[in-house]
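Example record for the data management plan.
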Amino acid sequence: MDPTADTVMITDIAAANVAANWKVGSSTAAPTLSSWTMDMSPNGDSKFVEFTFNQPVLKAQMTVANVSVAKNDATAAQALTGTATQTGYNKIKVTALTAAVVNGINTAASIKTSAGSAYTAVLAGTFMKSIDGNANSAAVANFGAPTFTADTTAPKIVSAVGVNGMASNTAIAITYDDYMTVAVHAATNYTATTGDTATVADGDGDGAVGLVGNLLTAGDTPWTNGDTLLAKSTVVDIAGNAIDITKDTITFTNAAAAATDDNNTID
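Corresponding structural encoding:
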């Protein structure tokens, strides 16, 4: 049998009687990358990179860490980590990109303001193997630009928990739907509205911190029911998008049970 056409993949089982849904390729030839897409517009780990190859491939033969996203001159390369999903007979999508990976890509070129031409893919020779696992794709030092969607999506607060009783010098953990910067740990980036002297103090954390910001309660008295905490516009995600004003305020409706996030509303 001709080794260049010894493999068939069905792309749509429900319409297997349509010839166009059967794709023929090689199980032994090394795949080559045809194009790629990078979409940074979804928040958090829904951001993704997708790769399209010249022939049928299997996600099991892809080593995600052996491809990097770099500045268009192939510098400042950020290796990918994430979850590979087969999205077509010749397509593999990598999702669940970590905060560190997204921050690294943003360091190479702004994921908010750049065009696709600002990026390139750097491929190691073991990035993708043939279906039989014996032939490696070739190394490519500068593949070229992706189809690109920028991150212009404002982050939102999705939940918050405190310590039951909300006494002074106890933790407040605020979860966002996107990867945030150290701004989420700084008391100056929040406004506390309370009926007493309760305020917030800086929490811990540095670098690209991911989805959770940490603060401490402060002042001489505990927080009480109905006290609120507003994230200011200086609370930003890695791309630099400011907090969505429709989901920027936490109301502690039951301070005695603030460790239960259902008791803390987000508006």
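Summary line stored alongside the record: DSSP finds one helix and 18 strands in the chain.
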